[in-house]
Amino acid sequence: MASKAFKNGVFITFEGGEGAGKSSQINALNEKLNKLNYKTVLTREPGGTAGAEAIRHVILSGSVEKLGSDIEAMLFSAARSDHVEKVIKPALKQGKVVLCDRFFDSTRVYQGITGKVDMDFLYSLERIACNGIWPDLTLILDLSAEEGMKRANARRDKNLRPDRFEKEDMQAQQKRREAFRLIANQEPNRCALIDASGTAKQVAERIWNVVQTLLERKTIDNG
Ligand code: TYD
Predict the structure, then answer these.
(1) Mutate which of 27, 102, 114 to test ligand 1's pocket (most atoms within 8 Å of Cβ)?
(2) 20 domain-assigned
(3) Residue 5 within any structural domain of the chain
(4) Is any ligand 1 atom within 6 A of the Cβ of residue 43?
(5) What is the pLDDT of residues 73-86, one digit of tens each?
(6) Cβ of 142 less than 6 Å from ligand 1
């Protein structure tokens, strides 16, 4: 069967707090789309290019924390810019479905709404980093902070130290959940809030319902 492509590609981002199951769900969706002959690119932030992975390493090690929140936000955005130009835009141009684990909503939530960075400053960085591309769909995996921390702790390799953001406590997790829910409320056309409780299979079904509708709409639009 010929592979299925879209005129301007389809850009889907995944968001949520620690332990919400983003990584396994994004992998499951990628496999499903490939089986259905969609060409996909699976990527993540911070990261996705050699330069952005280098920035990721510096940020998550915590060594830029002392430079302050604004600089940290600028580094996330610098990594995003490289990622957008070198990976996301070219893939969309080829008509692919791009699945990205975290994108600008993570910056809004971690650095902005629950952090110290001014939102207007972040929106300016967003415009520069995205440079004309925007997610068609953002899936926000929503889970209680307690359940998320439980899952994240169970999954974490005992030999690995928690990263810069994982160190933070339950209250921070709770605030982030609320921040993601706020964005979902503010931008219902782009965002879908996905109940991330229950089994992985149940969550995957909830995700598929939303993605299927988007792909059908995109197919008609291209028709
Ligand atoms: P990662 O190990 O990829 O986390 P997860 O598995 O939870 O997605 O680490 C990325 C961390 O960086 C995560 O705690 C969220 C944070 N982050 C920001 O603070 N701002 C951002 O713009 C992005 C993309 C991530």
Answers:
(1) 102
(2) yes
(3) no
(4) no
(5) 999 999 999 999 99
(6) no
